[in-house]
């Protein structure tokens, strides 16, 4: 049986159309499956877009001269770049691992293949305080603000600047340091230019009670107490409280044999009571007036 030429041509065309349709369906399905499997790697996908880690300190306090660190952590950075900007003048400090300022105190620290981009500021001054932004060059731009506080920490010795103490009594000096970050270091005491050394004694060790004792503790502030028992005239001098991360403070101690009208330390008291002085003054004035009055009356008699 022979088919007419027109029928054979139509049948061949039908086969080709069916084969073409099957190929198109396979290609569409393959593309769909491939796109579903790789969508999370795409740059426009939400899952791969860079984002900041917010669980980092963003209000940082340091003292003058102590190196400050601002930690910026960026996840899924991809081919984007991280920059640090000083907000007050919009100055670009760093871009990537490069520094774009002539101020060599600024530097970015980024370990290899790390998500951390840390801005390091050496020898910070009070003028460096302000807002710094960690930026990522996405579209639109991403930024995270950090507040840097730079304070001038100062020690303070409680009591007057000149202290008069009796020979043989107990001297107690208290130095406090409350301003600044929690890492306030420690405190040393000096008499003049000589460091006052004190050796800690084991609780089980039986030794004679030392004449000089030091105790430093941290609660809401750093507190150091210097006590000297059985004072000698040679204990007179300038005593300085010198913190490792703050400005020092000092007091002049005068060891005397007799009473001094002011700034005498009695036990734990640093100064004479103003109230007691006022009462004594009133009594003295009353006695003086009474004497004058009696003398005058006797004169008229």
From TrEMBL:
<dbReference type="GO" id="GO:0032589">
    <property type="term" value="C:neuron projection membrane"/>
</dbReference>
<dbReference type="InterPro" id="IPR003598">
    <property type="entry name" value="Ig_sub2"/>
</dbReference>
<feature type="domain" description="Ig-like">
    <location>
        <begin position="50"/>
        <end position="137"/>
    </location>
</feature>
<keyword id="KW-1133">Transmembrane helix</keyword>
<dbReference type="InterPro" id="IPR007110">
    <property type="entry name" value="Ig-like_dom"/>
</dbReference>
<keyword id="KW-0812">Transmembrane</keyword>
<dbReference type="GO" id="GO:0050808">
    <property type="term" value="P:synapse organization"/>
</dbReference>
<keyword id="KW-0472">Membrane</keyword>
<dbReference type="Pfam" id="PF13927">
    <property type="entry name" value="Ig_3"/>
</dbReference>
<dbReference type="InterPro" id="IPR013783">
    <property type="entry name" value="Ig-like_fold"/>
</dbReference>
<dbReference type="InterPro" id="IPR013106">
    <property type="entry name" value="Ig_V-set"/>
</dbReference>
<dbReference type="InterPro" id="IPR003599">
    <property type="entry name" value="Ig_sub"/>
</dbReference>
<protein>
    <submittedName>
        <fullName>Zwei Ig domain protein zig-8-like</fullName>
    </submittedName>
</protein>
<dbReference type="Pfam" id="PF07686">
    <property type="entry name" value="V-set"/>
</dbReference>
<feature type="domain" description="Ig-like">
    <location>
        <begin position="140"/>
        <end position="252"/>
    </location>
</feature>
<dbReference type="InterPro" id="IPR036179">
    <property type="entry name" value="Ig-like_dom_sf"/>
</dbReference>
<feature type="transmembrane region" description="Helical">
    <location>
        <begin position="12"/>
        <end position="32"/>
    </location>
</feature>
<dbReference type="InterPro" id="IPR037448">
    <property type="entry name" value="Zig-8"/>
</dbReference>
């Amino acid at each position: 049986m022979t088919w007419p030429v027109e029928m054979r041509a139509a049948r061949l065309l039908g086969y080709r159309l069916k084969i073409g349709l099957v190929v198109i369906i396979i290609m569409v399905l393959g593309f769909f499956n491939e796109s579903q499997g790789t969508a999370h790697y795409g740059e426009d996908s939400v899952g791969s877009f860079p984002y900041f880690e917010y669980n980092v300190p963003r209000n940082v306090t340091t003292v003058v001269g102590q190196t400050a660190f601002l930690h910026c952590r960026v996840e899924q950075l991809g081919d984007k770049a991280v920059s640090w900007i000083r907000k007050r003048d919009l100055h670009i400090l760093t871009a990537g691992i490069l520094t774009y300022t002539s101020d060599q105190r600024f530097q970015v620290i980024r370990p290899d293949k790390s998500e951390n981009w840390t801005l390091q500021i050496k020898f910070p001054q009070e003028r460096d305080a302000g807002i710094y932004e960690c930026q990522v060059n996405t579209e639109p731009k991403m930024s995270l603000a950090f507040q840097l506080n730079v304070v001038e920490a100062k020690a303070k010795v409680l009591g007057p600047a000149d202290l008069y103490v009796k020979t043989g009594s107990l001297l107690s000096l208290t130095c406090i340091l409350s301003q600044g970050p929690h890492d306030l270091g420690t405190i040393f005491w000096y008499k003049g230019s000589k460091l006052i050394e004190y050796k800690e004694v084991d609780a089980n060790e039986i030794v004679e009670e030392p004449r000089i004792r030091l105790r430093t503790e941290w609660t809401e502030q750093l507190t150091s107490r210097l006590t000297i028992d059985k004072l000698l005239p040679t204990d007179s001098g300038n005593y300085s409280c010198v913190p490792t991360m703050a400005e020092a403070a000092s007091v002049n101690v005068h060891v005397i044999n007799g009473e001094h009208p002011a700034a005498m330390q009695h036990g734990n008291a640093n100064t004479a009571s103003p109230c007691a002085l006022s009462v004594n003054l009133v009594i003295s004035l009353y006695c003086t007036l009474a004497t004058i009055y009696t003398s005058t009356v006797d004169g008229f008699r």
